[in-house]
Design brief:
By secondary structure, the protein is of the alpha/beta class. It contains ten helices and 15 strands. The protein has a single domain, classed as 5-stranded Propeller (L-arginine/glycine Amidinotransferase, Chain A). InterPro entries: Amdntrnsf_FN0238 (IPR014541).
């Protein structure tokens, strides 16, 4: 169970034409416009990405890198939205809300998973985009792989019917709630609001609008043995909730340098009882409205044994 919540391998997509996606700006309050020219911004994002990969590998995480050379996929650096993997050999492929994000799906990633890991089935929901449905993977859902709960903020990126279908197929219980920021704007993805580790959970409870539901979410996290680290809206704005626990040489919490800087010492102390912080500097990539967790598609699959030639 040690790696059930904290995978030891990830897929990352190396962006060669990064920019803040104009098609998602209307409902992603975390997006900002880069100050530099397009070429400079793209080069900075590429450098940040490569440094993050080096840091993860140096910490013992297995990183599968795919290059994206398309100019039509500005959010390709965030692959966790279009596929997810699950213990027992299961893979899900998701429908995306923004039209240009649908172009991020690439079957060479799925083929690598089949080659290097034990994949039993691939359930592809992406055809439901034609019906106007979206469920943006582990952005829309924050999955408790141990307690089998899919925490999901209501949004246009998390269709309730499709969420129920996913939970039936993958054996999760949906736990849906509304969440808004201090300005009253809907939270677009659950994974900017919360992140679940093996022994703790990062979440801003104040942003859950219904007090009864807020208490229920906190209670469920505690029932599954997590220590709840209640973040402030200001910490969420600094991407403190957008973190992913991984297993490398030891258990790690990958998060951005900005996120690490806004955590309080007492919050860090709780995390460090079971995981070492691994801050990654990605200020340019964060202008696109996502942070470290969005960049990491965790691999919850069993690796194939390598045959000797």
């Amino acid at each position: 169970m040690s790696q059930l919540q904290a995978p030891g391998a990830v897929v990352m997509i190396r962006p060669h034409h990064f920019c803040s996606n104009p098609e998602t700006r209307d409902d992603n309050a975390f997006q900002t416009l880069a100050r530099e020219t397009a070429d400079v911004t793209s080069a900075q994002a590429l450098a940040e990405f490569d440094a993050a990969v080096a840091a993860l590998r140096g910490a013992g995480v297995s990183v599968h890198v795919f290059d994206d050379t398309s100019t039509e996929t500005p959010d390709s650096v965030f692959p966790n939205n279009w596929f997810s993997t699950h213990a027992g050999g299961h893979v899900a492929v998701y429908p995306m809300y923004a039209a240009n994000r649908r172009k991020e799906r690439r079957w060479d990633v799925i083929e690598l998973l089949k080659r290097d890991y034990r994949v039993q089935d691939v359930i592809d929901y992406s055809g439901l985009e034609q019906d106007g449905l979206a469920l943006e993977g582990t952005g829309a859902m924050v999955l408790d792989h141990i307690g089998r709960i899919a925490y999901t903020v209501k949004s246009n990126r998390a269709d309730p019917v499709l969420l129920e279908r996913f939970c039936t197929h993958f054996n999760f219980e949906p736990m849906v709630f509304e969440a808004r920021d201090a300005q009253g704007r809907d939270v677009y993805h659950t994974n900017v609001l919360m992140g679940i580790g093996t022994d703790y959970a990062l979440i801003c409870l104040d942003m859950i609008t219904d007090p009864t539901r807020r208490a229920e979410v906190a209670a469920r996290l505690e029932e599954t043995g997590r220590r709840v680290i209640d973040l402030t809206p200001e910490q969420i704005a600094g991407f403190a909730g957008n973190a992913l626990e991984l297993t490398g040489h030891s258990r790690l919490l990958a998060l951005s340098s900005r996120a690490a800087e806004v955590l309080r010492p007492d919050q860090i102390a709780i995390i460090e009882r079971s995981a070492t912080l691994l801050p990654l500097s990605i200020p340019t990539i964060e202008t696109a409205g996502g942070s470290v967790r969005c960049m990491l598609a965790g691999i919850h699959l069993s690796p194939r044994e390598r045959t000797q030639s």
